[in-house]
Amino acid sequence: MGKKILVVDDDRLSRELLVGFLTKEKYDVLEAPTAGEARDLVYREKPDLILLDVMMPGEDGFSFCAFVKKKWQEPFLPVILITALNDRESKLRGLQAGADDFLSKPVDTIELKIKVRNMLKIRELHANLYNELVFARRVQESLFFAENHLQPQDKLFYRPCRPVGGDLIETWEQKDCRWALLADATGHGPSAALIATAVKALIDKNSQDPARLLERLNKKLCSLLAHEDSTYYVTAICAKIEKEKISFAGAGHPPCLLKSRGRVRQLPSQGMPLGISTGITFEKGIAFYQPGDS
Predict the structure, then answer these.
(1) Model pLDDT for residues 8-27, shown as the tens digit of each residue
(2) 68 assigned to some structural domain
(3) End-to-end CA distance of the chain
(4) Of 16, 121, 172, 198, which alpha carbon lies 20 to 30 A from 241's?
């Protein structure tokens, strides 16, 4: 089955010429005379590319292009604007709406063929990368849930703003206590996810003090991230949970929250982020809780 292309043009003759040429090029072609009908086709048929006329009654091509780019950020859906407007202002409007390329009327079929092929190649590259990132996210999430020592009353929710992120949620047990470490590497892509994975491997789970644990982790990360052009660091908060007592230490991370008797208070995280300087020390804080607190 060929790649699916949606042609949106209110002029029937122009639309038929484009549809006929693209069909001969072995593409699966959809067509719509208005932006309203095109919206339904985009939702239902999920095209690989949109050829979009600018000047249409009702919603014009600029507006529809902006709608597509807002709704379909991932995977990448390319839009080529077709316009008889060759002035600078019109092209700037198209770029601001998110157009990926332009074709001028009357459409040159050789130029059309090349630009369609190039945009479809770019979409394929985007799709391959996106699929790999989605798979990486599934692996990352499985590590969060499968390797954490969660109790039946525990609740864990994680959703990165990108397919993979630099977040880490790690829990483990020692005699008469439980530990939890939350960490966040700078960035939201694969590099941040790799750093978070490294943090997971570098945690000293035999440590007895959360502040000392962060100090040892910091030295290891400073060695790992010791590059002249490195701008990476890791924020973290570590807690040791004993009966009615929590010992904790933070490294630039947002504070944890303790809900007790209907009131919420913060467990402050005042230390520097990890991976910046080997000389950093951390202070341990202590909070007390009662049964029913969360």
Answers:
(1) 999 999 999 999 999 999 99
(2) yes
(3) 55
(4) 198
- 31 inside domain: yes
d(CA 221, CA 205): 16
Q: What is the CA radius of gyration of the chain?
A: 27
Whether residues 97 and 186 share a domain: the answer is: no
In angstroms, rounded to a whole number, what is the distance separating the alpha carbons of residues 258 and 281?
24
Structure letter (DSSP) for residue 274:
B
Give pTM, 2 decimals. 0.67
**CA atoms 269, 275, 276, 282: torsion sign:** positive
pLDDT for the residue numbered 120: 96
- From the CB of residue 208, how many other CB atoms can be counted at a distance below 10 Å? 11
Whose CA is closest to 210, among 264, 167, 253? 253
Two structure tokens written together for 269: 């995280």
Beta bridge partners of 30: 6
Pairing of strands 256-260, 263-267: antiparallel
Residue 234 exposure: Cα atoms within 13 Å on the Cβ side = 36
Element (H, E) at 24: helix 12-24
For position 78, what pLDDT does the model report? 95
Taking 50 as the pLDDT cut, the residues of the chain under it are: none
